[in-house]
Design a protein that fits this description.
Blueprint: E1 2-4, E2 7-8, H1 14-24, H2 29-36, H3 40-48, H4 55-65, H5 69-73
Length: 82
């Protein structure tokens, strides 16, 4: 689905970023589920892209990892907040 010009919904694959961030920080899915106060299976579905993650969870994850929500959403490749 095209949104604006050459940008499509497929470009915003946050689930890849949250999995990469978790692995890079040596965290388990259970640890992230505990942080978000959800079940591990629910968190696993966020990482697999089969369940949409709430925006409030994106904010919590961005603060936890010290990055921007834009980075998680794939709007920027700059991990650290300037």
């Amino acid at each position: 689905m095209q949104l604006f010009g050459s940008i499509s919904l497929g470009d915003y694959m946050y689930f890849r970023r949250i999995e990469e961030l978790r692995i890079d920080n040596d965290k388990t899915q259970q640890e992230l589920a505990d942080l978000l106060n959800c079940q591990r299976e629910v968190y696993r579905r966020y990482e697999k892209g089969t369940r949409e993650i709430p925006s409030s969870y994106l904010i919590v994850l961005a603060k936890f990892y010290g990055c921007s929500v834009d980075y998680i959403l794939g709007l920027t490749n700059h991990k650290k907040i300037k």
